[in-house]
Structures
1.
Amino acid sequence: MDGKKELRKTMTGIQQALPEEYTAQASAAIQRKVLSLPEYQRAKSIFVYIGMPKEPATLAINHHALEHGKRVYVPKCQGRSEMLAVRISGLSGLLPGAYGIPEPAECAETIPADKLDLTLVPCVCASKDGKRLGHGGGYYDRFLAGHAENAACLCFERMLRDDIPMGDEDVFLPRVITENDVFVHRISAPNTVFHP
């Protein structure tokens, strides 16, 4: 889809130009919002991406979840199509994997998307009504297909866009969390549009 490719290029440029002071402050605010979510507080198992530079950070969420006895899973990419949710007991053993993203070296314990209480998803940009543009690999769309009801996209306010093209394979997300707001929608059916 050409519209996606062009928008991804444009928004990646904007993302890379975000001031470090802004991303640090916005990340801290987003993490506080996640930690205060009833869905997070109730969750026994959570899937948390490892934030890369210029993405909302997740380090505080990971530490808090591990310290409070939650089962924490992080992504590990398998080849060009599959992403696994692999349980970790700490962050020190993660090694650069696919695309340079830190991930577990081993897959001792994995969990399917429908068994997770909360899944936190990164993006290049997102819309308030649950549309998400990722980096183009489709890993999260495949992982969450039919099981996105417990997912939330973390997005800087400056990276919100209304005009994100969505294909049949793209998964809408019921929550989009920025430093200023938590936008919540309900899913009428898997992989369909949301209704407020």
2.
Amino acid sequence: MENEIVELFDIPEGVVYLNCASLSPQLRSVTEAGAKALQKKVHPWEIQSSDWFDDPETLRALAAQVINADADGMAIIPSVSYGISIAAANVPIAKGQQILVMDKEYPSNYYSWNELAKVKGAEIVTVKKEEASWTAAILNAVNEKTAIIAISNCHWTNGALVDLVQVGVKARSVGAALIIDASQAMGAYPIDVAAIQPDFLVSVGYKWLLGPYGLGYLYAAPKWRAAGKPIEYSWLTKNNSENFAGLVNYRDDFRPGARRFDMGEFPGFINVPMAIAALTQVLKWGVGSIQSQLKSITQQIEQQADELGLGFPKSAERVDHMMGLDLPGGVSDALKANLKNENIFVGFRGESIRVSPYLYTTPQDLEKLFNVLKEHVKR
């Protein structure tokens, strides 16, 4: 099974790629879909009016399955920052209220909230992990002044987990909006929006969803689908936009559901077919199965890291598909050079090494990584 999965990716022998949390390798099927789509664009007269909408609807439905949503709840977006901007343009907040963010959060889930706070006279509250877990820290920070909770499902630097269901309950108890950046989980860690009940959830498509760069996903709760405000007004998002002959008959109403939040040019004649191929494979494996298989890999990493005396979030405190390793003395330039020389690719986040394997990761890959780390620790 392991060799079969490795063959689905174009990873040369000798390359140890443990940085899926940054940018996933591309499935051969995704490359083939892109090449086929690129060739189709060579003859644009072969592109039919239905092609502008049929593939995006297929993609929308596939993305919905990944997070237990309905297709009407999904929008196709270019980036997390775009999706967070949509959320910031819609969720209410008044002067003096608070926006909760995680300490050292990824910038795409910070800058929009910082700008919103300036405009509205609100306060950014940065939650630090001083309690036993991120979940406890976030829950303890929520109060009657909290209007928006903008968090990730796990910390992007080391995989430390947030219990989104618990946070969702707490958010609703004080009337706060819950916004989630699921980029470091969607596709690898089970997410159930029916249980979490976020206002908005966004994710890039080029990490754990194995898709192309420049295409991501937004989930909008039912209440935002009927009256939510998009941040751009594309002709494609308007109702009856499939009728090209009637486009000069301008209208105010949108296509149903979260489609009002679709980016302009969402038909993405090249990216969309690639993303369809990627999500088809992810769903074929199953997110639960992917997480289970990656757990067996990160448990091996945890065991070897523990033997070396490295610091890391324990399995009960993190997701099972990525983890940060804290080295004595931090990450030196010499270590970075040694890893590069051995064709070992990991993420460097602050003073930690972020290790994010995938189904193609082999025991030999881990052995090669820890051979380098052992030499570093000995020094």
3.
Amino acid sequence: MVKIYVVDTNVLLQAPYALDSFEDNSVVLPMVVLEELDHFKKAEGEIGANARRVIRYLEQQRLKGDLLRGVELESGGTLRVEKNFVNVKLPEDLSAEVMDNRILRVCMGLSESGKEQVILVTKDILLRIKAQILGICAEDFTTDQVLEHENQYSGRCAVYVPEELFKAFKKKGVPVDQVYVLNEEGESYVPKLEENQFVILKADQSAKKTQLGRVESGVIRKLDYRKSSPYGITPRNAGQYFLQEALMQPADKAPLVIVKGMAGTSKTFYSLAVGLEKLLNHPTEEYRRILVCRPNAQFDDDIGFLPGDEQEKISPLMRPIIDNLEQLIDSSEEERYKNEEELQGKLDEIFGRGIIQAEALNYIRGRSIVKTYLIIDEAQNTTPDQIKGIITRAGKDTKIILLGDPNQIDRPFLDERTNGLSYASEHMKGSPLCWQITMTTEECERSALAMEAVRRL
């Protein structure tokens, strides 16, 4: 049975390709959606770009036929604009002047005038609640949704290995079909391991004996950079050893690194340490610079309203990066803040020489970034479309590091299943060009208080 999907503006602003995602069903755009797209078309950043992209798409469909009667889509369905149902009565406490309520009125009119099932598709939770109250079926846009956070790919696992293979691991590695895990009933089975997945190997005759490895071409091999100390930093737990391994690999072998985990697990700190190691401590000439972007709720939308040039505008948003750099540049906790002017001078030198640069996320669009160590901090605040745009900007010899916590999202209409970080993690899983690691709660190294808060709050 053909369904009618009424699409809200916020779906199109986040996923401008959404109109092609409804298969052979009928897609309806209320007239108010066109008005809102017109309002957003001049907006700065991703919202404005997506609004213009949808408007161009609608123009292509208009040239094919009458949008009021409906035009056929490549997906097999139809698209039409609905301007009727202005006389449909809403409950007295719902004003007809409110944009969302005008969309509800279209849904009610369609439901009353036909036999097809009418479904409102919106990212707005409150609008979905109001729709349910009025007896209208409402759904989130699920095309970009991935698994719930606890079921998402973590890039790591723990397995058991026979004692004799465990002893020979560092020299020969261990074939992936020779390791096993136990299910809830205590039965053993061979797990499916992805390419580049990190592994904690446990000797089956003594589970206290462990070694760290990584899957490569069907074999679990030892870590290449286990004994490294980038910029004087030494790993403190298994997660940091895995993180160090992914970051230290050259761009031609590991061009994309995805790191998920709560605050305090040293994601940003370690990423900067490796970058500084390769550019300052032991220059490898792998990269020309470290480029840092830190998107959040204001980064892409409100930056144009802040005073100053680009660097002055994004400076407040880069403060977490500066905090990490202060610790890296002067490793002595006792001496670090005794001379604030000297510390600031060191920071100014790094930025002045162009070793580290900071840019707004929306300035990356359309560029080809080469020979760059690119850090996207707080990547959970990007949309799937944005994250695709970032990754496809990678030129030759560029390494992209996506960092973030899917449980800490500041951007409206994104959640742990629809943000760009989780989207990239699930879709790049198993790629030989992508290395991933999810830091665990126990690997929080920020402070004793931070760890105590994790346990109690």
